[in-house]
Amino acid sequence: MCDTPKGQLLSRTLAMPSDCNPNMQIFGGWIMSQLDLAGGILAKEISGGKIVTISVSSIEFKKPVNIGDVVCVYGECVKIGRTSMSMELEVWVKPINDDGIKERYKVCNATFHYVAIDSEGRPRAINKS
Ligand SMILES: CC(C)(COP(=O)(O)OP(=O)(O)OC[C@H]1O[C@@H](n2cnc3c(N)ncnc32)[C@H](O)[C@@H]1OP(=O)(O)O)[C@@H](O)C(=O)NCCC(=O)NCCS
Description:
Blueprint: E1 8-14, H1 28-47, E2 51-61, E3 70-80, E4 84-94, E5 96-97, E6 100-101, E7 105-116
Antiparallel strand pairs: 1-3, 2-7, 3-4, 4-7, 5-6
The structure holds coenzyme A.
EC number: 3.1.2.20
Protein name: Acyl-CoA thioester hydrolase YciA
Family: Belongs to the acyl coenzyme A hydrolase family.
């Protein structure tokens, strides 16, 4: 197993009790939201303007996330089309609790797709230079 995150660190936050599912582990929808925000930041930077999420082609939750974990999203742009961008994203957690800081591990990977849009919400060509 690869033990290094792929891509750059895009976001970091703390998993809170309010983000839990009924099993008292972190809700998958909250993790998807963190992925979408992080990929969206990268898409805005690459396209230099407004973007929207158009699709998610894959997502895999490999391990649960627990309250108090530091949740980090890493990622990279793997494709830039005329108006669209594809991001491979990974979520890693670093548990910090009474026993101290534990080694980080990957909990999720996903591929998100974004489209650059203009002020009317229409697809906008990305300047690749
Ligand atoms: C995103 C949106 C502007 C695209 O408009 P559209 O007229 O359907 O756009 P097009 O068919 O010209 O496709 C635009 C690009 O998206 C790509 N695309 C279309 N469907 C796709 C899909 N399901 N997955 C990935 N890429 C897709 C196209 O290949 C094209 O890429 P390219 O220009 O790099 O070749 C429009 O569908 C939209 O507003 N969707 C709602 C977005 C939204 O509300 N997201 C949630 C909140 S952010």
